[in-house]
C-alpha cells in the first residue's frame, strides 16, 4: 500500500512551475486535454516522494482550495535544511505562515502556503525521539 497526495490547483501548470522552483520537484509527465490544454493529470517527484495534481474539473468535484475557501489538509515535507527551503519557497511565491522554529518533538518546522492555497509543513529532523519522549516533552511544554 502507498499513500500519494493528489491535489487540485486552479492553474496546475503554474503550480508545477512553483513546486519545481520552491521544492526542487521533478516533473515525470503530464496529460493535457486536447484543444483546451487543460491539465488532466501530472506527476512530480519531490525527493523520494510522489505528488499528483490536476487542474480544477468541477464536473467531477475536483475543486482547488481557492474554489472551496481553503484547505483542511497540510502536506508534510521533510527536508535537509528547513530554513533554506522556506526562503526558496517564499522567493518562489509562497506565503510564510509560521517561520522556522525548533520544536519539542525534535524537529525544526515551518508552515507555508503555496500560491494555489495548499498548506505545507516543512521540517528538518534534529533528533529522533520515541513517541513516549515526544509526549513527555509536549506535556512539559503545554503543562
From TrEMBL:
Segments traversing the membrane: none
Lineage: Bacteria, Pseudomonadati, Pseudomonadota, Alphaproteobacteria, Rhodobacterales
Residues covered by the VOC domain: 1-125
InterPro entries listed in its UniProt record: Glyas_Bleomycin-R_OHBP_Dase, Glyas_Fos-R_dOase_dom, VOC_core
Designated name of the protein: VOC domain-containing protein
SUPFAM superfamilies: Glyoxalase/Bleomycin resistance protein/Dihydroxybiphenyl dioxygenase (SSF54593)
Pfam families associated with the record: Glyoxalase (PF00903)
